[in-house]
Design goal:
By secondary structure, the chain is α/β, with parallel strands linked by helices. About 35% of the residues lie in helices and about 20% in strands. It is built from 15 helices and 19 strands. The strands form four sheets. It has an eight-stranded parallel beta barrel with strand order 3-4-5-6-7-8-9-10, surrounded by five helices. Helix 2 packs across helix 3, helix 3 packs across helix 4 and helix 14 packs parallel to helix 15. The chain is globular. The model has no long low-confidence stretch (mean pLDDT about 95).
């Protein structure tokens, strides 16, 4: 390894810099499938050569099997590394005690007094508990239990909501590869504008963007043996199928041969060259096999214009992966290992409280204004639902700062949560009425409305009006037919 280049490093925050290839430990969970027991001390010892070679950052999560415990054993034996972990709570209400318990559990496993980077994943945004979790995590950051906060699988709209609401997110971990370029669009632009760095995973498409699968027939069900292979085969099918994917693989292989490197090197280098990307994740099966020497060659590789054009030509015919970053976990098609959320989530409780009153069902979002003024967030009577004028407030907090687009997205989240609580959805909305306190905000509000309702196109009115709260830049009411 002495003759191979050391990995470049990237500063995520003033006191946190990481190797630009982060070693992903999600495969620990796959290695433990079926009750298999790993040698945790042996796996921890296997982290040493990575650190010695300059690959000092490791990514894990609370649900990656024994990954956090393995990292903790490495630390307790004197190992020094940047430990990035994630918290992925079950859907439903989240209180301060729940958050503290989760963070303390991670600290115990990691044998650390402070988590370098805690990344938060939310299963849905129509339930405002995701914001509760972030606010409570930020309290623990201020307390010193967490070094920095990041997001995992956030879309652009809700990354905006969090940032505008004062949550100091330094990163967003999302799928980003030559096959899935969603993060190169509005997500990348937003991150560059706001100083958030992308941590890209899925860059090798579960190993399919390697020589192993070049010029081969599509994998059989038995050949898709790991969760990663099951997951990213769905991405390939969604993007246009195996034959079209082979066209990309051949283009990547040609660039790799030109430079005397591997296909994995080319696939990673192409994503590392994206302006918003801080690092890419490359998975490791600790104690089984290592790609250290190959990964090191990424940092001696420079792609030229000819290379980039060849790759762009090969990806030009792909169908875009639907939606924004992270949508594969929140709406069909679910591009997960099983094609649904069955191995992730058991159920989704209603975002808001409801109660029956005569022939009506009332939805209450818990704002102090509802009991004071005597109204409900929404009312269902028969097949019709009416949603009250809704602003970007959550409990006693004003959400979205002075960003009209962020406020609009959170308002629509509240409307969506009310509809879901009453057995409906955004697609059932037939009319919206939008009130802006400053007419100059109309376009930002309208564009956000278009992002969320563009596939529905309800009847709509937008007018300037003086709103009750000085913090509120926008208020929206909606009617839906179930």
């Amino acid at each position: 390894m002495a003759s191979l280049p050391r990995p470049d490093r990237r500063r995520l925050a003033p006191d946190l810099d990481v190797s630009r290839v982060v070693t992903g430990l999600w495969q620990v969970a796959d290695m433990e499938r079926g009750g298999r027991r790993l040698d945790l001390d042996g796996a921890a010892k296997a982290m040493g050569p990575y650190v010695d070679a300059g690959f000092t950052a490791f990514d894990m999560a609370d649900h990656y099997g024994s990954a956090e415990e393995i990292a903790g054993r490495f630390v307790s034996a004197g190992g020094r590394a940047e430990l990035l972990t994630k918290w992925v709570p079950e859907p439903g209400p989240i209180g301060r005690d729940t958050v503290r318990t989760a963070v303390q559990r991670a600290l115990r496993r990691l044998k650390r007094e402070r988590i370098d980077l805690l990344q938060f994943h939310a299963w849905r945004f129509s339930d405002p508990s995701w914001l509760d979790a972030l606010f409570f995590l930020d309290e623990l950051r201020a307390e010193g239990l967490i070094g920095h906060l990041g997001a995992a699988n956030f879309d652009t709209a809700h990354l905006r909501v969090a940032i505008a609401s004062g949550i100091p997110l330094v990163s967003n971990q999302v799928v980003f590869s030559l096959l899935d370029r969603r993060a190169a669009g509005k997500m990348g632009a937003f991150c560059r504008e706001h100083g958030v760095q992308l941590l890209a995973y899925g860059t090798l498409a579960g190993g399919f963007l390697t020589e192993r699968w070049l010029d081969r027939p599509p994998p059989t069900e038995n050949e898709r043996s790991t969760w990663s292979e099951m997951k990213y085969h769905r991405f390939i099918e969604t993007a246009g199928g195996w034959e079209r994917f082979q066209g990309l693989a051949r283009a990547v292989a040609a660039v790799a041969r030109k430079h005397g490197v591997s296909m994995a090197n080319v696939a990673c280098r192409a994503i590392l060259d994206e302006p918003a990307v801080g690092a890419v994740m490359v998975g490791a099966r600790l104690g089984e096999r290592s790609h250290l020497e190959d990964n090191a060659r990424i940092f001696s590789l420079t792609l030229d214009e000819e290379d980039r054009k060849a790759i762009a030509d090969a990806t030009g015919g792909f169908a875009p992966i639907p939606g924004d970053c992270g949508d594969e976990y929140r709406r069909p098609p679910y591009l997960t290992a099983t094609g649904d959320l069955s191995h992730h989530v058991q159920s989704f409780p209603p975002p808001y409280q409801t109660r029956v009153s005569g022939d009506r069902t009332l939805c209450l979002s818990g704002t102090p204004w509802e009991p004071m003024a005597g109204y409900s967030r929404a009312v269902r009577k028969g097949l019709r639902i009416s949603v009250s004028g809704t602003t970007a407030s959550h409990g006693s907090r004003a959400i979205g700062g002075r960003d009209p687009a962020a406020q609009t997205h959170f308002v629509i989240d509240k409307i969506e949560g009310a509809l879901e609580s009453l057995g409906s959805r955004l697609e059932d909305v037939v009319r919206t009425r939008v009130f802006v306190s400053r007419i100059q905000d109309w376009e930002a509000v309208a564009r956000a409305h278009g992002e969320r309702f563009g596939h529905v196109q309800p009847a709509n009115t937008l007018v300037e009006a003086k709103l009750v709260s000085e913090d509120a830049l926008v208020e929206i009411e909606a009617d839906a037919e179930v």
